[in-house]
Task: structure prediction
Amino acid sequence: MKIDVLLGLQWGDEGKGKVVDVLTPHYDIIARFQGGPNAGHTLEFEGKKYVLRSIPSGIFQHGQTNLIGNGVVLDPILFRQEAEALEKSGIDLKKILKISKKVHLILPTHRLLDAANEKSKGSAKIGTTGKGIGPTYTDKISRNGVRLGDTLSKDFAERYANARDRHLHMLESMGETPDISALEKEWFDAIEYIKDYDIVDSEHYINHQLNEGKTVLCEGAQGTMLDIDFGSYPFVTSSNTVTAGACTGLGVAPNKINDVYGIFKAYCTRVGSGPFPTELFDETGKTIRDIGHEYGAVTGRERRCGWIDLVALRYAIMVNGVTRLIMMKSDVLDNFPEIKACTAYSINGEITRDFPYSVDSDEIVPVYTTLPGWRTDMTAMKSAEQFPKEFVDYIHFLENELGVPITIVSVGPDREQTIILKK
Ligand code: GDP
Ligand code: IMO
Ligand code: MG
Result:
């Protein structure tokens, strides 16, 4: 029995989609367990580029089954757009994709509530992706949600209308009186489209497959620092992005989880508001953004850039039980004469290596170790034997600081630009 989890250790956009695609041939099933179309997972191969939002990144390899688990929130309209584009490019999605009956549906009014909530927060806004994620999970937890399985029941229209009316009242109290008739029609058309997919009792399905000896890779969305419990609250998303989220988001028991792949960039980025202790406001930050093309895959927003934060990474490794590390985008630092890594925080003069309750950037001064850069173009490298000495030293330094081996290094966006280290 084997179920591994791959998840982001920073503030999202670590490169999860790329690596899930690379690892897919080793698994039978690829499963998303939380989040929704707030995710944007980019894959590049054979000169083509795809950005996946709700659909797992295991759809491009050898016909593996892909599963959207119960912990995901699904927007029928965006799902349809994403799925139809993939079908046009030749993917027989209906054959390889299963969707849990228990996924919660994002209603058109959830998106409007997301926007209205943000507006009402003014300068304290979270900077959400605007996809209705928070309001949909709020309805789930307050036991008011509408699930995909409900679409198969006779009173579905009534359940939908009850939720919509409640949302419209909330919107009205916030001064919004939107006309949603066109959106509603599109939404119901998309529901009919989804009904052609295999809508399953996913917790039964996945456990049955595991008992049959099949292997599963769980694909995280967002990142640990955006987790609803452990992230930089309230500037977080509304789901558990950590390993435990794979258990609740798929219905697999904790003792079935095998390896946990923790993925991070050789530096750090964040999109949206909230604290970011190692953020760079200078030319170096701008250079990282330019070379790393750090603009959001979903919203196109500029990503904030900074040096790698080992305090936050150690914390993320701890709460996730990471067994293997994956380092992405090291090529972005190929030309840097020196590289900095934050190994501790100084908070009001006191040094700590443990991630604190509050990460208000104003109070925290990062303590940096400076390492020599490798100043070598690594983008065409195929094996660890080709690595420059400074890069090998950088890996050893990180492994030493983090206490977990780095088993994969990515040196470019393409599927081929991935180096598996033998560990
Ligand atoms: P995800 O949300 O974790 O899947 O990551 P995103 O797709 O949002 O952002 C990662 C971006 O970096 C994408 O544009 C990828 O194509 C790109 N990328 C992934 N790995 C590498 C790498 O090793 N080097 C470079 N330069 N780009 C990479
Ligand atoms: P992937 O899977 C980066 C951020 C938003 C915002 C906060 C809350 O591509 O790594 P939400 O719409 O979830 O209510 O927004 O979380 N955020 C992400 N940032 N990558 C993502 O996903 C993100 N999904 C949400 O920018 O700060
Ligand atoms: Mg992304």
